[in-house]
């Protein structure tokens, strides 16, 4: 699989969630337009320290981003008069980034391998998932004033994967923990982990 890499500081894209992005750098403007034209997925690479970003040669792995990344298809929502873009990246899954391909482009093109996940929730964890949903619902009601945006978000919270991804995106403030949730392969591990965080009282709800 071939993906375009968009490295961002402390940003994680979860499957079945949508990440709004303000794109302004010329190379990434070109990347988004090409991704839309060619239907090439974009992987959001998690960077901890932007000072460690270095040039990457074809055949190497990208060392300054974490190996596991969420990916999705880009949708251009708004083209502004100053040339910048508002883009929605719709999470489709997660992948393991591989070697850089020599494509002669100003942005990074990588090999990648999709990581399959187990998304069937155990019946005994339904109570914990319901607790996550209730906390997420309260957060949305409190922090999103636009009723249309609230309704869109709530309508999309149907499957466990959607609830877990949105909960981690909005309520988990520790970026390392967010990415840890992405790295879990089993929805049941994710629910247990997030429920423990919720019970600890450390989350902003």
Automatic annotation (TrEMBL):
All copies of the Lon N-terminal domain together span: 3-202
Query: Which superkingdom heads the taxonomic lineage of this protein's source?
Result: Bacteria
- Read off the InterPro entries from this record: Lon_prtase_N, Lon_prtase_N_sf, PUA-like_sf
Record-given protein name: LON peptidase substrate-binding domain-containing protein
Q: Which organism is it from?
A: Bdellovibrio reynosensis
């Amino acid at each position: 699989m071939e993906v375009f890499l968009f490295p961002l500081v402390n940003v994680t894209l979860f499957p079945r969630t949508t990440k709004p992005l303000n794109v302004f750098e010329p190379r990434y403007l070109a990347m988004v337009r090409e991704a839309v034209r060619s239907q090439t997925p974009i992987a959001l690479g998690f960077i901890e320290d932007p000072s460690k970003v270095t040039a990457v040669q074809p055949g190497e792995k990208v060392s300054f981003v974490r190996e596991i990344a969420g990916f999705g298809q880009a949708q251009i929502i708004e083209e502004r008069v100053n040339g910048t873009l508002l883009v929605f990246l719709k999470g489709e899954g997660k992948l393991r980034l591989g070697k850089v391909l020599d494509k002669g482009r100003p942005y990074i093109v990588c090999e990648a391998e999709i990581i399959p996940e187990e998304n069937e929730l155990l019946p005994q964890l339904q109570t914990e998932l319901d607790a996550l949903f209730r906390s997420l619902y309260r957060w949305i009601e409190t922090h999103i004033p636009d009723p249309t945006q609230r309704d869109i978000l709530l309508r999309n919270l149907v499957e466990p994967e959607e609830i877990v991804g949105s909960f981690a995106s909005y309520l988990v403030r520790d970026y390392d923990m967010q990415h840890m949730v992405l790295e879990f392969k089993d929805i049941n591990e994710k629910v247990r982990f997030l429920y423990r965080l919720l019970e600890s009282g450390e989350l902003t709800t």
